[in-house]
Specification:
44 residues; mainly beta; 3-stranded antiparallel sheet; 1 helix; 3 strands; 14% helix; globular
Length: 44
């Protein structure tokens, strides 16, 4: 994967990393250091 951008704004939220795979598809990466919950996953 190739990193395209970091801290990408989506409405009032941001996701951590936008990448692109070898086929040109967009991949969104959200780092989570602690236990996640439905609210956090739902924003993704």
């Amino acid at each position: 994967m190739t990193v395209v951008s970091t801290q990408v704004a989506v409405g009032e939220f941001c996701f951590d990393i936008q990448a692109e795979d070898d086929n040109g598809r967009t991949v969104v990466i959200e780092n989570q250091l602690e236990r996640t919950d439905h609210g956090h996953l739902g924003r993704a």
